[in-house]
Design a protein that fits this description.
- The chain is of the alpha+beta class.
- The chain contains 10 helices and 7 strands.
- Helix content is 59%, strand content 17%.
- It has a 7-stranded mixed sheet.
- A hairpin with a 2-residue loop joins strand 6 and strand 7.
- The longest helix has 68 residues.
- It is rod-shaped.
- It starts with a strand and ends in a 5-residue tail after the last helix.
- The mean pLDDT is 83.
């Protein structure tokens, strides 16, 4: 069973109690931690003030970390979320000790609240209920948070397909913005997830007086493998986007080259005609065709003949292909 208590509008607590054992497992979930919430934790657990300061809603850590104190572990992790059609990091802090786990976040990771409600309503369905271990509770929560990465990766895969389709139907300009968004999202997920594997490896060695070391090791080894799988998928997507970008640039360059070739041929043809027109426009006294009643048409015919000869020359040189 589980005993639930709503301490304040931002603090909830659930105590997982397995009647078969004499141990209790306490989980405190805090949303948008401010001064009151930090003071509550400091009074209750006497955590390090710097760790508590790092857990406030207004402070965002630039990197994940694991700090091993005598009485607890302090952990900062980032997970990717969609915000305004862009992937950005969401931060969560953990305090984990014997018989307790505390999570602090800005309520932008709904999986945390969903898992908290599950532990409140149906604790018997959790592995930590039978193990009475905060390390197992943490592993179960991290497993759900990491699985949330797969829908984001699937979204990127769909965007890659749309970019490919845009390229091959001749919408290279539209594909440019798609590729830029994809690059931004994939780089952000990679930056967020790149340290997870090493951090999860540190949890493999966590010791518990309630749970065999092998059981904790198995839970976190699965998380490490999951992290590797996510990283491999991101690597494949990164390579695909690079290939798509190179293909799009090649098509754009080819299109630009064709445009420049057409303009160059046009300017080469027009230049001698312009020169010829300028010569006959000098009004010299003894100009051929000037006094001829058909002089205009003769000059026009000469210019047309010159244009045709140049086009034939370009065609034989295969410059028009």
């Amino acid at each position: 069973m589980a005993n639930y208590e709503k301490i304040s509008s931002k603090i909830e607590k659930v105590v997982i109690d397995n009647p078969a054992t004499a141990n209790l497992l306490e989980w405190i979930n805090i949303i948008d931690a401010g001064k009151k919430e930090i003071a509550y934790l400091r009074k209750l657990y006497d955590f390090d003030i710097q760790h508590l300061h790092s857990s406030t809603a207004t402070v965002f850590s630039q990197r994940p970390m694991v700090l091993d104190e005598d009485r607890y572990l302090f952990v900062i992790l980032h997970f990717p979320i969609f915000q305004n059609n862009r992937i950005v990091p969401a931060e969560i802090e953990f305090f984990i000790g014997h018989g307790f786990m505390i999570t602090l976040h800005n309520n932008n990771l709904p999986t945390i609240n969903d898992f908290f409600n599950l532990s409140k309503k149906s604790p018997e369905s959790l592995d930590c209920y039978h193990a009475d271990s905060s390390a197992i509770l943490l592993a179960e929560l991290l497993d759900r948070l990491m699985k949330d990465c797969y829908p984001l990766i699937d979204t990127n895969s769909l965007a890659i397909e749309k970019a490919q389709e845009a390229i091959f139907v001749g919408k290279q300009k539209d594909a440019v913005s798609m590729i830029l968004d994809l690059r931004h999202n994939i780089i952000n997920i990679r930056r967020i997830m790149q340290n997870h594997k090493n951090i999860l490896k540190t949890f493999i060695g966590v010791k518990s007086s309630l749970v065999p070391q092998m059981e904790i090791k198995e839970h976190y080894k699965r998380l490490v493998e999951n992290s590797k799988r996510i990283w491999e998928m991101l690597e494949n997507q990164k390579e695909m986007v690079e290939v798509i970008n190179n293909t799009n640039e090649s098509l754009l360059n080819d299109r630009m080259a064709n445009i420049m070739k057409t303009l160059t041929i046009f300017s080469v043809i027009v230049f001698p005609l312009t020169l010829l027109a300028a010569v006959f426009g000098m009004n010299a006294k003894y100009m051929p065709f000037v006094d001829n009643p058909f002089g205009f048409w003769q000059i026009l015919g000469l210019m047309t003949l010159l244009s045709m000869l140049m086009l034939i020359f370009f065609y034989k040189k295969k410059w028009l292909q």
